[in-house]
């Protein structure tokens, strides 16, 4: 049996600001992010296996992506910790806000690279991350493909 790709989609709301950017996105603002996670592998053929016919149970994929990404980023504000925004971030943290201090500029490109690393580290041996698509607005998204990052 051949390789099959399966995809699960996630949504989360997050704020961010692009420090030093020459446009309106230098302001703190938010997005309703849509993340599509595609993995590839061979469906299980062992008739005695509870996951017969699955590459990975969608539920198991959901658990990984929720724990690594959605539960952390949903309703958080992401700042580049290598910029003066660290001061703003510290103030918000002190006031009990949910803040993520990223070691990168929080563009959709950098976020999708970060997400790929985190998801890859949690997948079982027989399942590979194929691609991610992170949609920031109705008209803007970034994609990561394993085949382009080997
Ligand atoms: N290459 C990138 N460019 C921009 C990013 C990014 O992550 N990567 N991010 C932003 C802003 O954060 C924000 O997402 C604005 O994006 P944009 O598509 O420009 O939003 P608009 O509302 O102006 O889109 P329209 O649909 O064209 O009105 C900026 N750039
Ligand atoms: Zn934005």
TrEMBL record:
Keywords: Lyase, Metal-binding, Zinc. Transmembrane segments: none annotated. Its EC number is 4.1.2.50. Signal peptide: none annotated. One of its GO terms (molecular function) is 6-carboxytetrahydropterin synthase activity. The active site is at residues 25, 75, 136. Binds 1 zinc ion per subunit. It catalyses: 7,8-dihydroneopterin 3'-triphosphate + H2O = 6-carboxy-5,6,7,8-tetrahydropterin + triphosphate + acetaldehyde + 2 H(+). Belongs to the PTPS family. QueD subfamily. This is 6-carboxy-5,6,7,8-tetrahydropterin synthase. It comes from Pseudozobellia thermophila.
């Amino acid at each position: 049996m051949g390789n099959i790709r399966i995809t699960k989609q996630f949504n989360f709301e997050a704020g961010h600001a692009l420090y030093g950017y020459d446009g309106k996105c230098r302001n703190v603002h938010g997005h309703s992010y849509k993340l599509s996670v595609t993995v590839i592998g061979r469906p299980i053929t062992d008739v005695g296996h509870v996951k017969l016919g699955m590459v990975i149970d969608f539920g198991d994929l959901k658990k990984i992506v929720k724990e690594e990404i959605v539960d952390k980023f949903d309703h958080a504000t992401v700042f580049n910790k290598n910029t003066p925004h660290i001061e703003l971030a510290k103030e918000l943290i002190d006031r009990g806000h949910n803040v993520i201090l990223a070691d990168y500029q929080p563009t959709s490109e950098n976020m999708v690279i970060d997400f790929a690393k985190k998801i890859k580290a949690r997948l079982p041996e027989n399942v590979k991350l194929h691609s991610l698509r992170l949609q920031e607005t109705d008209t803007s998204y970034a994609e990561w493909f394993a085949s382009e990052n080997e």
